Amino acid sequence: MRRPVDLHDAVQDLSEAISRRLILLDADWRVIAYSIHESTVDRDRLSHVLAHSDAWPPPTFSDGVFQTTIDGLGRVVMLSLSDPRQ
Fold first, then answer.
1. Is the dihedral of CA 29, 30, 33, 35 positive or negative?
2. 4 vs 85: which has the higher pLDDT
3. Predicted TM-score (pTM) above 0.85
4. What pLDDT does residue 25 have?
5. DSSP string for residues in 19-46
6. Nearest Cα to 8, choosing from 26, 24, 21?
């Protein structure tokens, strides 16, 4: 029998595959999963996101933002926060 994929394992596997730290947010922009953040800068950024994610305004979609709908999951939006202030 095939074991279902754990969300946290899937996020970590994707993070390792693309060599980027990942934070997964729900539709209300609350953190629901994140990859391992090893460096001090990554941990600081994760701490900021954990502390403030429920206070962000809804996103505006522009270049560099990918959104789609996945069956059984709903709307998915992916964006890269390359600016450490975001």
1. positive
2. 4
3. no
4. 80
5. TS--EEE-TTS-EEEE----SHHHHHHH
6. 24
What would the pLDDT profile of 30-85 be if each residue is shown by its tens digit?
888 899 988 898 888 888 888 887 777 766 666 567 777 767 667 777 766 655 45
CA distance 50 to 13: 21
DSSP-derived secondary structure letter, 16 = H
Reading the block at residue 50, the tokens are 């954990």
pLDDT of residue 63: 58
Cα-Cα-Cα-Cα dihedral sign, residues 35, 10, 29, 64: positive
DSSP 81: -
> What CA–CA distances, in Å, run from 25 to 2, 29, 48, 54, 56?
27, 5, 14, 10, 12
Task: Quote the longest CA-to-CA distance of the chain.
Answer: 45
